Amino acid sequence: DTGVSQDPRHKITKRGQNVTFRCDPISEHNRLYWYRQTLGQGPEFLTYFQNEAQLEKSRLLSDRFSAERPKGSFSTLEIQRTEQGDSAMYLCASGYGGANYGYTFGSGTRLTVV
Amino acid sequence: AQKVTQAQTEISVVEKEDVTLDCVYETRDTTYYLFWYKQPPSGELVFLIRRNSFDEQNEISGRYSWNFQKSTSSFNFTITASQVVDSAVYFCALSEAETGNQFYFGTGTSLTVIP
Question: Which terminal residue of chain B, N or C, has fewer Cβ atoms less than 10 Å from its own Cβ?
């Protein structure tokens, strides 16, 4: 068990480009979560999966964002037509149940849109 | 409305001093869970403690202790005899039983321990 892995750790992209991040959760965890953290703020919930099903999406997740978790294993978060306001740390977490049980976070992907 | 408030944005202490990080929460649920996470410069959020709303007993773990008071909706975190390795951003978070699929995080307190 190597914890929750996220790739890449850092991504710099030009405005308007598409980016995709990957998260590999702890293998036996059935739930996977994505959060976004902007500078000086706490993480904000974006979406979560139970196995391969995406069960909840935050209003923060605009139409330009899409997340998938094929086969209930790793997950990808894609941002299309990036904007400067998308610059943030994107954190992935996994767990057995809901947030009430707590979950394990990855180290995040820091996105900078220039 | 902010569900979790961490009024202290930044705190600096000299090594070996005690420091308390404040957390005030707001919820209408009778069943809820409170958490503290540590975020070192590497970015990973490290779990420190989970407490449910029915357990107001204070907890001590080594140099860390937590004071949960429902009457004031507070869940404060004290580090005794601080060390340089304690330097990090600390987040308090709330999870509500009814919508128990997400955390509501505070804005964090950045702690710097000066050697």
Answer: N
Distances (CA, A) of A97 to A33, B101, B102: 11, 8, 11
Residue of B nearest to A40 (CA): B107
Tell me which chain B residues have a C-beta less than 8 angstroms from the C-beta of A45.
101-103
pLDDT digits (tens, 9 = 90+) for B54-104: 988 888 889 999 999 999 999 999 999 999 999 999 999 999 987 778 899
What residues contact A73, with CB distance under 8 A and at least 6 apart?
A: A24, A25, A27
Flag if A42 and B50 touch (Cβ within 8 Å).
Answer: no
Q: How far apart are CA A25 and CA A4, in angstroms?
A: 5
Helix, strand, coil distribution of chain B in percent, nearest 5: 5, 50, 45
Percent of chain B residues topping a pLDDT of 90: 80
